[in-house]
């Protein structure tokens, strides 16, 4: 079976003028144009390719790596707009089409958008959509508190950073828990802080509670060593100063230096902390 929009492994069957013909166990055949063929190969070799549709909407193979595969999200730039819709650069020769009806807001050339790649049931064509809410759902949450997850930042508001969790769920990082520069399109590791009764998901970039003490403590040790053994920060320092210097909340900082103090790795002085 040929799976449009996905990577597949095929066997090289023969070489022709247009390129290499590939085949699977079900005797389906697919063309890999000459410009994408490997430098060295033999008939019978297996090769992994990405399958998409050419300009005549026929399945075709490529060794280029797209920025997004079927049923996934990506941050893509709009490269063209015509009377039918917008076209996104997704790393392949043929651009990804986003019809007007699939645009959360009118797309403009040069602007970046979170786009979901899906296969249209009616036309059997690969289509992009920036109406991302259609493709995420919190009805049945598949993550738990403290889980380490992958997130994609979709957009920032006064409330915080809206994110897609593991490509499946809505999530939010509250603004007072963001201690680093993040932007739309960033892919990051994060942690589930809380799952609310209405299945809304609170996300943080640092392991919540006691789980964050050890990595933060190690981070502060590294910063102390880089600074020559002393940092002019302590438990009475201004929260904004701590955030600007270390990217940590004051609460996280105090937990970390408390752990280091108990382990007799630092001295807490009136003007800062010092390595022992």
From TrEMBL:
A GO MF label: nucleic acid binding
Positions of the S1 motif domain: 144-206
Classification via InterPro entries: CvfB_fam, CvfB_S1_st, CvfB_WH, NA-bd_OB-fold, S1_domain, WH-like_DNA-bd_sf
SMART domains listed in its UniProt record: S1
Protein family per UniProt: Belongs to the CvfB family.
Official protein name in the record: GntR family transcriptional regulator
């Amino acid at each position: 079976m040929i799976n449009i929009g996905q990577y597949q492994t095929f066997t090289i069957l023969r070489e022709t003028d247009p390129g290499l013909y590939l085949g699977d166990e079900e005797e389906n055949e697919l063309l890999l144009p000459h410009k994408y063929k490997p430098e060295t190969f033999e008939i019978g070799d297996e090769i992994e390719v990405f399958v998409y549709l050419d300009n005549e909407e026929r399945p075709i193979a490529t060794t280029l790596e797209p920025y997004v595969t079927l049923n996934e999200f990506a941050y893509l730039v709009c490269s063209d707009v015509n009377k039918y819709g917008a076209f996104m650069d997704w790393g392949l020769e043929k651009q990804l089409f986003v019809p007007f009806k699939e645009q959360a807001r009118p797309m403009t050339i040069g602007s970046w958008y979170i786009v979901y790649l899906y296969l249209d049931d009616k036309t059997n064509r690969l289509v992009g959509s920036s109406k991302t809410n259609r493709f995420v759902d919190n009805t049945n949450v598949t993550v738990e508190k403290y889980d380490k997850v992958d997130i994609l930042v979709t957009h920032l508001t006064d409330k915080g950073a809206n994110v897609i969790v593991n490509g499946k769920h809505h999530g939010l990082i509250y603004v007072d828990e963001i201690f680093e520069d993040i932007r739309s399109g960033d892919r990051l590791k994060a942690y589930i802080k809380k799952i609310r009764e209405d299945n809304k998901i609170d996300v943080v970039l640092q392991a919540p509670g006691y789980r964050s003490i050890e990595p933060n403590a190690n981070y502060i040790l590294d910063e102390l060593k880089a600074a020559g053994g002393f940092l002019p920060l302590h438990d009475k320092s201004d929260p904004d100063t701590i955030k600007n210097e270390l990217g940590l909340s004051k609460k996280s900082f105090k937990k970390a230096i408390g752990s280091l103090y108990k382990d007799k790795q630092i001295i807490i002085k009136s003007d800062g902390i010092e390595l022992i």
